[in-house]
Design goal:
The protein is an alpha/beta fold. The chain is 40% helix and 17% strand.
Length: 260
């Protein structure tokens, strides 16, 4: 079993601009903070072979890969190639395209992800869905989007990737909501929240992990008891500098190791 520090990953969406401008400098700074893993979120214009070499250079493991929605429909072979390049077979549909955030789109998404999962399961792949964002509370067959898509069919399961921030925005208590994913959520996204702002005001209501109102200690405690392999620190925006924000979240989670 990994110690907690090695299970904390930086979600690369957080540093999307920095990674596009200076891939090596970005990975170097993440390693300097103390991260031992990252969750990939596209190449941002970088050569995948170069990125793989840099990850090896800085001894960063790949804690899952976020893949663009349409690639599950038209580029499965490309996904497989990247997965082998980066040594990671846990892949997530990162975001359901806006024009498919409707019942027909959700049903189509589930059918396609199940088809991909069935095709790749024999190769050891896990196919998942990142926590839906503003469409979290939409219902299909009386089930919220993430639950509808991740409900198993004929023994095949799409893995959920819960996100503490989006659960909170949806009016749920993350500590309670994640309990239904016991044993089938290998990765959690950790983002913190502070009240007092409009729910759509992510620039203000999103705050560094451990600095807001979400009970992150209880979330991690649950994770340690229920098979979570990585905790991804994600900071979509920062008021103090993205690397400083990620460092605050990383240091906070490391401090929990003695408590969980």
């Amino acid at each position: 079993m990994k110690n907690l520090k090695s299970k904390i990953a930086a979600q690369m969406y957080s540093v999307r601009k920095e990674f596009a401008e200076d891939a090596e400098g970005t990975l170097r700074r993440l390693q300097k903070i103390g991260f031992e893993a990252v969750q990939l979120d596209g190449m941002r214009g970088n050569d995948p072979l170069k990125v793989a070499a840099l990850l090896k250079k800085y001894n960063l493991q790949v804690a899952g890969m976020h893949i663009k929605h349409e690639r599950f429909f038209n580029d499965v072979d490309g996904i497989i190639e990247e997965a082998y390049l980066f040594g990671c077979k846990t892949i997530f549909d990162k975001y359901i395209d806006d024009d498919e955030q409707n019942e027909q789109g959700y049903r189509k998404t589930k059918a396609t992800l199940l088809e991909v999962a069935q095709k790749l399961s024999s190769l050891g792949f896990r196919v998942g869905l990142h926590n839906p964002e503003y469409d979290y509370n939409h219902l299909v067959d009386g089930r919220k989007v993430i639950d509808f898509i991740t409900d198993p069919v004929n023994g095949i399961c799409i893995y959920p990737e819960p996100d503490t921030y989006w659960m909170t925005i949806a009016g749920e208590n993350p500590v309670e909501s994640i309990k239904k994913y016991s044993g089938r959520a290998p990765i959690l996204h950790l983002k913190d929240y502070q009240s007092g702002y409009d729910l759509n005001d992510m620039g203000n209501n999103l705050i560094e992990v451990g600095s807001g109102e979400i009970d992150m200690k209880s979330v991690v405690q649950w994770g340690e008891e229920n098979g979570v392999e990585y905790y991804c620190v994600e900071q979509d925006y920062s008021r103090i500098g993205i690397f400083e924000s990620l460092k605050i979240g990383f240091d906070y989670l490391v401090s929990l190791e003695r408590e969980v």
